[in-house]
């Protein structure tokens, strides 16, 4: 059974979904521009093995929108406060896509032992300095022109047409993205432009898996592989899919996560 509710934590209202049946606890964090529904298909598979917590991050979906700027530490603090709200006080497993991975990394560093295993899918841990101004320009375009004008020109890069084997799946993810609040979305772009979570990687003490999409034009395999190389013992895998892999290839993504997290038991 899925319980969908709201929590006013860390100064922000978050919408979340909880599936509990006494199994190991797994937190799934979506990407920038997504919502918790982008995890639905993968979560349904994983729920046979784990208790699952998904949520709309600050500024996304039906969670409270962002006024001004936000930091990756704010997002990690949101996650920590939500865990306390639902009573998940012990170690948890975490899987995050893009900035969801960055959030998971910062969450793992907030308290030793809090995260028992971390999967970073298409991780977005910052931007190349040469692309920083372009990222800030993208933030300005979101506010000036709206989400549709910023999304549609790049949609075929985000979700290549030949990977739309389930058209309704791609359409739903696109519509969720178009439903974003431009100011909140822009705040997240500014956040990514100014952060460097990759510098935190050597500090991670928990088991870590990095997963790249072979068709990811945003965070390609060579980038993800270079991140994995910064952590002794980190695992690395690739999936034949694109950037938002949990929504694009839920069966493959869930299978990859299940193998990794089950190996930690």
UniProtKB/TrEMBL annotation:
<dbReference type="InterPro" id="IPR022742">
    <property type="entry name" value="Hydrolase_4"/>
</dbReference>
<feature type="domain" description="Serine aminopeptidase S33">
    <location>
        <begin position="24"/>
        <end position="232"/>
    </location>
</feature>
<dbReference type="Pfam" id="PF12146">
    <property type="entry name" value="Hydrolase_4"/>
</dbReference>
<dbReference type="InterPro" id="IPR050228">
    <property type="entry name" value="Carboxylesterase_BioH"/>
</dbReference>
<dbReference type="GO" id="GO:0016787">
    <property type="term" value="F:hydrolase activity"/>
</dbReference>
<protein>
    <submittedName>
        <fullName>Alpha/beta hydrolase</fullName>
    </submittedName>
</protein>
<dbReference type="InterPro" id="IPR029058">
    <property type="entry name" value="AB_hydrolase_fold"/>
</dbReference>
<keyword id="KW-0378">Hydrolase</keyword>
């Amino acid at each position: 059974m899925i319980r969908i509710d709201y929590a006013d934590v860390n100064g922000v209202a978050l919408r979340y979904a909880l599936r509990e049946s006494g199994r190991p606890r797994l937190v799934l964090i979506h990407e920038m521009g997504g919502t918790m529904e982008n995890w639905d298909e993968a979560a349904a598979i994983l729920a046979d093995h784990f208790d699952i917590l998904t949520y709309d991050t600050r500024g996304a979906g039906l969670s409270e929108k962002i006024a001004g700027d936000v930091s990756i530490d704010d997002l990690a603090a949101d996650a920590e406060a939500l865990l306390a709200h639902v009573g998940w006080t012990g170690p948890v497993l975490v899987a995050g896509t893009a900035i969801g991975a960055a959030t998971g990394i910062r969450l793992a560093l907030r308290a030793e032992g809090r995260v028992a295993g971390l999967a970073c899918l298409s991780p977005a841990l910052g931007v190349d300095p040469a692309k920083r101004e372009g990222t800030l320009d993208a933030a300005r375009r979101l506010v000036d022109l709206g989400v549709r004008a910023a999304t549609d020109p790049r949609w075929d890069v985000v979700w290549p047409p030949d990977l739309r084997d389930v058209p309704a799946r791609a359409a739903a993810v696109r519509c969720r993205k178009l439903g974003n609040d431009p100011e909140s979305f822009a705040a997240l772009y500014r956040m990514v432009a100014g952060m460097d979570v990759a510098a935190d990687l050597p500090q991670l003490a928990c088991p870590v898996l990095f997963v790249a999409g072979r068709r990811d034009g945003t965070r390609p395999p060579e980038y993800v592989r270079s991140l994995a190389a910064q952590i002794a013992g980190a695992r690395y895998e690739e999936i034949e899919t694109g950037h938002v892999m949990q929504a694009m290839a839920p069966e493959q993504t869930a299978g990859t996560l299940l193998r990794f997290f089950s190996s930690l038991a």
